[in-house]
Design brief:
Distance between the termini: 73 Å
CATH topology of the largest domain: Rossmann fold
Number of domains: 3
Number of strands: 10
Number of helices: 17
EC number: 2.7.7.14
Protein name: ethanolamine-phosphate cytidylyltransferase
Pathway: Lipid metabolism; Phospholipid metabolism; phosphatidylethanolamine biosynthesis; phosphatidylethanolamine from ethanolamine: step 2/3
Keywords: Lipid biosynthesis, Lipid metabolism, Membrane, Nucleotidyltransferase, Phospholipid biosynthesis, Phospholipid metabolism, Transferase, Transmembrane, Transmembrane helix
Order of helices and strands: HHEHEHHEHEHEHHHEHEHHEHEHEHH
Pfam family, one: CTP_transf_like
Strand content: 5-15%
C-alpha cells in the first residue's frame, strides 16, 4: 500500500506540467500516442498542422531574428598636430554608431582652407589609424561635404550619419561645410572638447621656443608660467580618463611590456614605437613622465602637460594601461608591482644628458631590458621645428583661427554630450 502511494505521488510530480490524472492507465497511453502521432509525426503521422490543441501557441514561438546591418558613421578632419581633443571627438562619434569611418583631409585642401599643415598626410594617417575607436580611414577627403562626396559616402561606404562637433566649420566664403548633410537629415553633432586645439598648440610652441632661445633658467620658468596661463581652458576630470581607459588588468601569466617617455606632441613616431612594443608581449604598460622630469631633462617644459599627454597615450589602440607621472628610474618595486616581464626603449630619444644615471640599470641587470628600433625618426622637437622654421606662415594662420576660437568661447552654450 505504501509503495502504491509513493508511486502515485511520483506520478503526480511528473505530470503537474498541464496534463491531467485521467491520462493514466491504458487509455492515457493511447491518447498520448495519438497526440504524438498527429502533432509531431513521431510515428510517421501528419505533423503539427493536424494538432488543433497546439495551434494557438504557434504564434508565440520565437522567430529567427534578422541580422541588422551595423550603423556606420563618418567624421572627417585635418587631424594636424593630433591631440586628445581629436581623440575625444572620434570617441564620441563612435558612440553614435557601430563602425567609425574617418576621413583625413588632403594637404591641398588644408592649404586652401586653413593654411599649411604641420604634419604630412602619411603622418596624419598613422595617427588616426592608431586610435582605438577608428575602424576605417579614407585618405585625401575633401574639406567640404559636397553633394557628390556625400553620395559617395552613402553609396560606396554605406555611411548612415555624418558627424561633426558643435563648433562651426566654415568655408572661405563663410558658408557651413556641413550644410548639405544637415539638409539631408543625415547629420549628428557631438560636443567639442574644451581646452585644446591645433591652433592653441601652435601658439604654445611659438611661445616656448621664443622664451627659450637664451636657454636661461629665468626664461624657462617664465615660459612655463605663461604656458600654464594658456592652459586655463583645459579641465582634466577622472571621468575623461575613465572614458579613454581600457579598464582591464593583464590576465594571469600575461607578458607585460613596459615603455616610458614624455610623449609630448603625440606624433606618428610615438604610434609606431608603441605598436612595436605591444608586439613583444600581451599587455603594454606605458609610463608617462611628469612635467618636472621633462623640464629637468630638456631644460624646458613640455608643450602638453601631464594630463593631456596621458590622454593622448591612452587613446592609442596599442596601449593597455598608463602610469601617470611615472618615475624616471625603473625600480624593483615597479617591476614587482606591475609584474613587468620586459622593459623596452627606442633608438630615438630626446633630452637626455650624457652624465645622468642610467634609469634602466636594474632591468638591464635582471636581463629584462631590450632596445627596439624606432620605426620613425620623428621627435617632438623636430615637429616643433617645422613650425619655428615657418614662423610667419603659422603666425598668420593662428591669428585667423584664434579670432574664430575666441568667438566660439564667447558665444558658446552648453551642449549635452559625453
Amino acid at each position: 500500500m505504501m509503495m502504491g502511494v509513493l508511486a502515485f505521488e511520483n506520478d503526480q510530480g511528473l505530470w503537474n506540467g498541464g496534463y491531467y490524472s485521467q491520462f493514466f492507465g491504458i487509455g492515457g497511453v493511447m491518447v498520448t500516442v495519438a497526440i504524438l502521432w498527429l502533432s509531431t509525426g513521431y510515428f510517421g503521422g501528419f505533423g503539427a498542422p493536424f494538432a488543433p490543441y497546439f495551434w494557438p501557441y504557434l504564434g508565440q514561438l520565437p522567430k529567427k531574428k534578422e541580422r541588422q546591418r551595423p550603423v556606420r558613421v563618418y567624421m572627417d578632419g585635418c587631424f594636424d598636430l593630433m591631440h586628445y581633443g581629436h581623440a575625444n571627438a572620434l570617441r564620441q562619434a563612435k558612440l553614435l554608431g557601430d563602425q567609425l569611418v574617418v576621413g583625413v583631409v588632403s594637404d591641398e585642401e588644408i592649404v586652401a582652407n586653413k593654411g599649411p599643415p604641420v604634419l604630412s598626410m602619411e603622418e596624419r594617417l598613422t595617427l588616426v589609424s592608431g586610435l582605438k575607436w577608428v575602424d576605417e580611414v579614407i585618405p585625401d577627403a575633401p574639406y567640404e561635404i559636397t553633394e557628390e562626396f556625400m553620395n559617395t559616402l552613402f553609396s560606396k561606404y554605406n555611411i548612415d550619419y555624418i558627424i561633426h562637433g558643435d563648433d562651426p566649420c566654415l568655408l572661405p566664403d563663410g558658408t557651413d561645410a556641413y550644410a548639405l548633410a544637415k539638409k539631408a537629415g543625415r547629420y549628428k553633432q557631438i560636443r567639442r572638447t574644451e581646452g585644446v586645439s591645433s591652433t592653441d598648440i601652435v601658439g604654445r610652441i611659438l611661445l616656448t621656443f621664443k622664451h627659450n632661445e637664451s636657454r636661461s633658467e629665468n626664461a624657462v620658468v617664465e615660459s612655463c608660467d605663461q604656458m600654464k596661463t594658456q592652459l586655463s581652458n583645459f579641465l582634466p576630470t577622472s571621468r575623461r580618463i575613465m572614458q579613454f581607459s581600457n579598464g582591464q588588468a593583464p590576465s594571469p601569466g600575461a607578458r607585460v611590456v613596459y615603455i616610458d617617455g614624455a610623449f609630448d606632441l603625440f606624433h606618428a613616431g610615438h604610434v609606431e614605437i608603441l605598436r612595436s612594443a605591444r608586439q613583444l608581449g600581451d599587455f603594454l604598460l606605458v609610463g608617462v613622465h611628469d612635467d618636472q622630469v621633462i623640464r629637468e631633462r630638456r631644460g624646458c617644459c613640455p608643450i602638453m602637460h601631464l594630463h593631456e599627454r596621458t590622454l593622448s597615450v591612452l587613446a592609442c589602440r596599442y596601449v593597455d594601461e598608463v602610469i601617470i607621472g611615472s618615475p624616471r628610474e625603473v625600480s624593483r618595486d615597479m617591476i614587482t608591482t606591475f609584474n613587468i616581464s620586459l622593459v623596452v626603449h627606442g633608438t630615438v630619444a630626446e633630452g637626455s644628458s650624457v652624465d645622468e644615471v642610467d634609469p634602466y640599470a636594474l632591468p638591464k641587470s635582471m636581463g629584462i631590458f631590450q632596445i627596439i628600433t624606432s620605426p620613425k625618426a620623428i621627435t617632438s622637437v623636430s615637429v616643433a621645428t617645422r613650425i619655428i622654421d615657418n614662423h610667419e606662415a603659422y603666425k598668420k594662420r593662428n591669428l585667423k583661427k584664434k579670432a574664430s576660437e575666441d568667438k566660439y568661447y564667447t558665444q558658446k552654450k552648453f551642449v549635452f554630450g559625453d
